[in-house]
Amino acid sequence: MKLAGSTTLPARRSAVWALLTDPAKLARLLPGCEELVPEGPDRYRVKVKFGIAAISGNYSGSVELRDQKPPESLHMKVQGKGTPGFMNGAGQITLLEKHGQTEVRYEGEAQVGGLIASVGQRMIEAAAKKIVQQFFAAAAREVESSTG
After folding, report:
1. Which residues, other chains included, contact 51 with Cβ-Cβ below 8 Å and sequence gap of 6+?
2. What are the pLDDT digits (tens) for 55-103?
3. How many CB atoms are closer than 10 A to CB 76?
4. How far apart are CA 104 and CA 1, in angstroms?
5. Is the terminal CB of the chain with fewer CB neighbours within 10 Å at N or C?
6. Cβ(31)–Cβ(133) under 8 Å?
């Protein structure tokens, strides 16, 4: 499954970069996140709970930030597994400042397997898009509250 898009956040690029690389803030922004704990340089242990259709569950795994070019771009690698299945993904985030706001471009690919894959590709893609939308809506609220 491929996922790509962009959104604009109402803050300077340096503030958005700080937000996206702060584990305490990321834990608050990520839908269903129960834990995001540093496990080494730019590597975090994560526990999340979410569901697709009638299949929900807890997942544990890791998030790794690679090839960071502050405050321009980074690569992210995500792995997780739980009772409903597994997910492995990787992607790139690029930040472009425009008139005091930041356009966040994201692009990545994920593989999903196990029971969760049985709900079908379209439902998985719709759920992934919803999670991304929720994440960026929370990020917009976070930067607005910290700058306003």
Report:
1. 57, 84
2. 788 999 999 999 999 999 999 999 999 988 999 999 999 999 999 999 9
3. 19
4. 20
5. C
6. no
Instruction: State both tokens at 107.
Output: 């692009």
Which pLDDT belongs to residue 120?
A: 79
Q: Which domains, from first to last, does the chain contain?
A: 2-147 (3.30.530.20)
Please report, as a single letter, which amino acid is at residue 79. Answer: Q
* Length of the chain (residues): 148
Quote the pTM value.
0.91
